[in-house]
Design goal:
alpha/beta; two-stranded antiparallel sheet; 10 helices
Amino acid sequence: VHYQAQVDQFGEMIGAEALLRWQHPTRGLLVPQEFVSMAEKKGLIATLDRMALSSACEQLKLWNTNPETALLTCSVNINARHFSQTDFVARTREVIDRSGIHPERLVLEITETAMLESLNDASRKMHALKACGVRFSLDDFGVGYSSFTYLRALPLDELKIDMSFVRSVISCHKDAAIARSIIELGMRLGISIVAEGIENEEQREFLAGLGCTAFQGYVVGEPVAADELLQSLNIFQEYPDKLS
């Protein structure tokens, strides 16, 4: 599991997203697009998800030991097939309880694909975990079919503007208008907005000018191992033995 920093409008780190990587013996470090479909076919995706969730919770527990990182959040992507399993809530609670973290620091990222089979089932599961303190983010917002229905029915704390809009927000007036609408919608609903896939400072400044307050992407930092993430921010230097 690697971690990509998320920062606020002032450039201060507010959290990170846990991202799976596979260190292949011959092909090197692989991103999810290169192995998730195979994991789904082999029935391993729930195992991978739980591994990522467990790792994220351990990092949250570690970050909580230092005042400089105690308020950081960690986001974890939940695969639609894993989310659809009947024991998803119980197994997720087990991981959270075992780690002893503050659940409000954990953000589960769900895509609209996870809601396709049953919006009622998705709502039930999300409300059950929300009651424990877990936060929810709707990933890839703007590319699905029924986003507004989800905004009304689900206990969402965050929307992530899909990177396909962010990448062309400067060059395409339509994408800029979509980004502006999502940010304004989030403001009115009291939902946080994260712009992901930020590649340059011009994009970040433009979206900040529209009112976006959280940013993630290579201009902020690439996904790295947890110790590299903290070292790059000069955090935990006084506790080298706690780096994982």
